[in-house]
Amino acid sequence: MPAERLRLRIGNLAKAVLVSGQAYQDPKDALNEFVSNAADEYVEAGRRGERIRVMLRRKGRYPVIAVDDIGRGMSRERLREIARSLFESTKAGDERTLGEKAIGILAFQQLGNRCDVVSRAEGSDETWVLRLERGKATAQLERERRKARQVCGTTVVLSDLEPDVLRVLTQRKVVDYLRARRGPALARGDYSIEVVEGRSVELVSPEKPDGLKLDVRARPTLWGRIEFALYVSSPDTRRRRVAVVGRAGTTIVDDIAEIEEFALPPWSSGQVTGEVVFAALQQTAGRRAVLRDRDAFPVFVDAVKAVEPAVRRATEKLAQEVDAQTADRLAETLRRVFGRVLKELADLDNPMRTPVGDEPGEGGLFDRPRAEGSRPSRNGSTRPDAPPGLPELPELEDASDDAPTDPPHREARPDRRRTTDLPSVSPDPDPGEARSRFEAETGIVFYNDRHEDYLVVRDDEAGLLDYLATLVAKEYVLYNNPRAANEDFSEEMVRMLVRVRRHLPKRR
Q1: Theoretical Cys-Cys bridge with 240: which of 39, 187, 273, 321, CB 3.0 to 4.6 Å?
Q2: Which of 35, 30, 163, 54 is nearest to 108 (CA)?
């Protein structure tokens, strides 16, 4: 029997005008149309848990991509109807299925030049193929004898592929894409998807949300229920997203933060994962955006805005807990680091403290009585001898023009109650504009966690440790050398930082 020549016909011009101005943004979106057709076939047939196979042959002389299902298949008459009724679908209005415009059959044009729809109807032993070519207004319908199907179902074979498509549609990228786009349906067990390339077969598994599940109740509306499955996690390097799921359990938008109304925390924080399900939402033809209609979309926005405060509180609480844990861990690390540094500088007996009494004498420094085995420092005070082989932390020269050259008339009285604990760090409960300040009574360097420099390194723990170590070193040098000239202070600061950074953990 010779091939039948069919002229493609648009059944609904209004829909054609609407859809023709929209294109697929990604080759994976075009491939997804054929996966959607297979998924819809299982829904219409009432079959659950059946498999959809995506086959990639990207190398060789004739690369092809195929999407195969084992559904009811299509007869010759059904294939003829598809070609003659573009933009008119029998699935329109069926809430269980995704397709409604019958444009998926044209998605092949973004991938390659040819598309063969090979199908064997249930109860028939004949295999028919509908052949389409890019840019042609006609299609061919003929019986397939050479590669007849052994079981009923449909295989869409895409050939004469574009080179860019072959680079984009790798097994790994296709699996990740389908996991994100079809995770809810896969999790429910509506169907399974496997991606085959050569001898490698990978099953697309649904994403498993992590974190604390929020108790957010479904909201009834005139257009159906809006259901929330939201999980909140501690901030880390992972990029978590909340998917927007529409009809047939298919993801409309991978990340709700892509929608203008939700492009802000908590949705963009990376701490929230899960999905918002609303079957009344519609996709644009490119399958990458929500159709902003006047009915369902405003209801969706209002519902999500209503739960937003609770989600924000949960993310902030977890973030604060993580910040506190991180601060404690970094504080302990800094104490160890400065313990080694101060040992090198022979200053363990007096960390972060200048010998200042509660009644200072002239010059504001306490002159400790010289003890046996000690030697005077340059400002007249005394300091125990440094351990053998370890350098002594020198006092900087007095930068004041009227600094006394003679010993002070009276000594400052030491405050014996002061401790010798190693310095610690903590967020400043009352931050000003400075990066940090040192509180001598408690031995704590308070850092400004609102300062722009802190915010730059906040999410990088290694960078944050280096930043806090720099602040502690600055406060140490500043406190112990209150009257030093700028150049002397800078030299001492560099001297301290060189030693501090030798003991910081190495970055991985």
Answers
A1: 273
A2: 30
pLDDT at 299 over 90: yes
Instruction: Name which residue leads in pLDDT, 458 or 372.
Output: 458
Quote the CA–CA distance of 462 and 161 in Å, as a whole number: 46
Local structure of 281: helix, strand or coil? coil
Domain boundaries, position 14? 4-203
| pLDDT computed for residue 419 by the predictor | 36
Domain boundary among 155, 177, 203: 203
Domain boundary residue among 174, 203, 232?
A: 203
Distance CA(219)–CA(118), nearest Å, equals 43
Task: Kindly give, in sequence order, each residue whose CB lies less than 8 Å from that of residue 223, ignoring residues fewer than 6 positions away.
Answer: 278, 280, 295, 296, 299
Give the pair of three-digit tokens for residue 45.
């047939």
The per-residue pLDDT for 287 is 59
Q: Residue 432: is its pLDDT beyond 70?
A: yes
State the pLDDT confidence band at 334, using cuts at 50, 70 and 90: confident
Task: Give the Cα separation of 345 and 358 in Å (integer).
Answer: 26
